[in-house]
Design goal:
Helix content is 25%, strand content 17%. The chain is built from two helices and four strands. The protein has helices spanning 15-19, 42-51; strands at residues 4-5, 24-26, 32-34, 57-58. The structure holds FE3-S4 cluster (F3S). The site of FE3-S4 cluster has 14 residues, from helix 1.
Length: 59
């Protein structure tokens, strides 16, 4: 699965990291990135996508 965070849009709220820490991590720049797109169920990943307040996550 091609899961992606647009760092130009991410505001670093951390919701995705809280919901699915095996998939996302917070980077030194204060924004999140995908470190393991296979790290959670499709359902949970879909939930993180819809939970991002600025719609920065796409697949
Ligand atoms: Fe950024 Fe959205 Fe995650 S703002 S930290 S990609 S929930």
């Amino acid at each position: 699965m091609a899961l992606h965070i647009d760092k130009n849009i991410c505001i670093g709220c951390g919701t995705c990291v809280s919901l699915s820490p095996n998939v996302y991590k917070m980077d030194d720049d204060g924004k999140a990135s995908v470190h393991n797109p296979e790290g959670d169920t499709k359902e949970n990943i879909d939930m993180t996508i819809s939970s991002c307040p600025v719609t920065a996550i796409s697949k």
